[in-house]
Fold each of these.
Amino acid sequence: MMRLSRFGGNPHIGVFSAAGESFAFVSPNADKDYVATVTEVLGVETHLTSVAGSFVVGSLLAMNSNGIIVSGLAEQSEIKFLSKFLPVGTLTGAHNAAGNNILVNDNGAILNPDVDGRAVKKIERILGVPCVKMSIAGLNTVGSACKVTNKGCICPAETTAEEIKMLKDIFKVDVVKTTLNHGSKLLGPCLVANSRGAVVGDITTPIEMGKLEDALNLY
């Protein structure tokens, strides 16, 4: 299932939302219709939370079915809340925006090459998957560059053949180049998705929607 939406007038809904197979976390200023859309399309429980006191939940949180990584700036009350659902780890240092710097599904994860090497083992333990540090299409913020679920992966047009092979090997899914939100090359901010569905920014074109549907096998 796929549906067009926006968050408070902003089509970059992935900035404010993060989802896995069972849960989605959305900024606490989300309206009821947006929360209902995420819940229905993704088939998840949707919960409202901030991260580090901020509404940009999707930028600061990365998750799969095994765990959650949040910015090291997250407040203890936020970590305690998230821990009700899955094990939680924090990402500290200069590159602590976990959603922007981690691309993950239930098979593997890619990290911004600038993430502190000491953090890799913690991320692997919490997410329960092997981690590889690499850039994609010249971008170190791999969570912003791409989107991956357990059924498919989308990446920017500039992604090389070698990078696509690595994405396929790491995530165990097919990989498709595309844009979203009417030509945006940064795909992560444009949507929130899992293996059952995708909610995508409402300026995404019909051609882009078709590519997304094929890439993530949303039939």
Note: The chain has one domain: 2-215.
Amino acid sequence: MNCLLDTCVFLWLALAPDRLSKRAVEAINTAPKRFFSSAGLMEIAIKHSFGKLPLPENPRAWAASRLAFFQVDLLPMDAEVIFLSGELPRVHSDPFDRLIAAESLHRSIPMVTPDEPFSALGVHRIW
């Protein structure tokens, strides 16, 4: 089963793998394809620029190297995902998370995430 990595999961995979659950590691390691949303990439770039997310190098180089190393495909943002993120129930207000949830729902890809509010949005969550 393919999987979509939440932003925190992508960061932990690269920087703090001990924070991942056993089930998350299993899902990531056995997935035929691993995906990361462009919304997550945007979240990393913005948080880094505000000084809220230290990285070993600039986000452009770091993210590209980590995506390649872990063989994670970046999903391009499309209009349907953007519109769907605005139509989801109001149980989770973070715009990045809403976009990532919409990506999971639109493409029918389970998401690897510890964040329980994704379940309330209808996402098949693996943790």
Note: DSSP finds seven helices and five strands in the chain.
Amino acid sequence: MKRPFKKEKRLHPRLSHNLPLKVAANGYDFTTTTQNISCLGAYCRINKYVPPFTRVMIKLDLPAAKAKSSNYQLDCKGVIVRSEDDASGGFNIAIFFNAIKDDQRKKISQYISRFLPAESSSPTL
């Protein structure tokens, strides 16, 4: 008997949201927005080439869950793991958060989970 097909699920899902992001690398400061984010890292576009394995400082603002609450500001360290030319100019970079506190990682996960569909409790056939 064949087993039913199961969808691949990421352990740490990515969310395609534009969040304000500041990246400091090699004496340059970039203000940009995320193209996607997970609790492990972010993907964004900057206007100068920064090579892979470059260490970076990250400042990220996560919107509050409630309108009257203040945004959560996250400061952590990361490393660029991929840098690609963008056809429209600039460079797309993937950043791995390599020095982030557990409570900060949890805040990102909580933010992302607000936008993910709820898990169905019924079995998949």
Note: The chain is about 10% helix and 45% strand.
Amino acid sequence: MTPSVPELEAWSPARDFWRHLRRSPLAVAGGALLVVLYTVALFAPFLAPYAESDIDRDRFFHPPTPLRFVDEHGQWRGPFVYGTRAGADQSYEVDRSQRYPLRLFPRGARYRLLGLVPTDRHLFGVDRPGRIFLLGADDTGRDVWTRLLYGSQVSLTVGLVGIAISFSLGLLLGGVSGYFGGWVDTLIMRSTELLLSIPGLYLIVALRGVFPLELPSQQTYLAIVAILSFIGWASLARVIRGMVLSLRQAEYVLAAQAMGASSLRVIVRHILPNTLSFTIVAATVAVPGYILGEVFLSFLGVGVQPPAASWGNMLIAARSERVLTSFPWMLLAPGVAILLTVMAFNFFGDGLRDALDPRKAPVAGGRL
């Protein structure tokens, strides 16, 4: 009897991509963290115990309230928080005579789940007049945890909007310019030079003055990002043009042309995929750039403004020396969120660059 030979697993691009990607633990961890962050942003109203602009005028700069399970007598009480009373110099004392058990799925501020289903159920909360501040309260008594969740909807979305517009235009126009050359190349490249000559800072300030004052700040910022994205495609298009110039004489491109493939099909199906490695890295760098740009715009007063929340205006509210020395939770919460997001995009982008590189050999274990 001959020993049985294990059947080799059939090769496919998707399976080979996953084999390459999982060889980088940092890339897998970064991708998993991004999935968690965007899921949290999607369900932010449900995960937040309060409304975005809910103000408690009796609890300015309230410190984080620790979640307890055992009372002062050592008896098990389940998850609860103690009440607090204000002291001198904006300090708070624990009132052990008041215990507020943690409730799951309590009723609270109304919202639309996923923007569609009206409801007032939240993941957790405590009965009034108790308050639970997982990350403390800000200078107006608003829950930092709640604002961090709502702020993620703005800060994580603007990057996707920006790259969706700018990279789509940059890839297509850069590919067309490099493939056809001639007057088409001249027209597109002179347009990119014109757009690159426009100073972005002055354009931002001018655009902010054009929008009506009653327009919500989130919509104003998204409109600015969308307009700037139409300008931001220029630098990407120049790089893609240079890559296409070196790819259009490749054998597989000439073979596709000989088989009668249209110019658009050759560009989209055979040339642009070979620029994917650079594009992925550029996109993962651009998304954190939009997030950090939101901080800069908020500082100038043209970004998202209170009472709407974003990670940028949360950082701006914590810029004073008094907050940094006495109420560090106001700075740490948005700062750590931005840091984790930027690192996750960078790690995931590096892993995607390696996994999607068309020149990389298939991982052993598959069959061509």
Note: The chain is about 55% helix and 10% strand.
